Amino acid sequence: MAVTPRCAVVPWALCAGWLLAGCAEAPAQKPMPAPVTGTAVDWRSLAILPFGSPLQDLQVPAHEVLMFGELAGKECYALDTPSQPFPGREVQSYLLCFAKGRLDRVELTIGLPFVDAAAEFSRYCDQWQVGTAGISPRTAERCDGTSPQGPSFSAVLSQSPGDSPEGSAVPLLIVLSDTPVPDSP
Fold it and tell me: Are the C-beta atoms of residues 87 and 41 closer than 8 Å to each other?
């Protein structure tokens, strides 16, 4: 004997009521991602839009920022609301730059604790350079890499911990691009 769903054997008006009351199976909920622990983070996840996305795809409040120097020809926008936190660190600034209306570059700055800045930066660089080709030699204040799929990163510890007052945050500037990032930032 075949089993017929309840909704098929009753009038449609009743079925609609049952659907609203839970006769139909609820759509599957996406599980919440596990919280990031430790210092592991994939630098590719720091971009909130895929490279090449049109400006119209930016679905978060942002304001245009006037740029000079190498970024003078790009349309850059700073987020009005904080971006996703870097593991355990608040993002101090987040900038999206568009060339010809397409996302071309992402810059973000976080503050590393004075005491652990050099060690933390070294751990990030070790993780980020796995599977990438270096563009320039790695130093204690700079590392970079380009993935085989094209995106690249450049990270610069803006001040050495020795130059920062004790107890302050040491700025870490991270630039993401869909092309190799030259000796910037």
Answer: yes
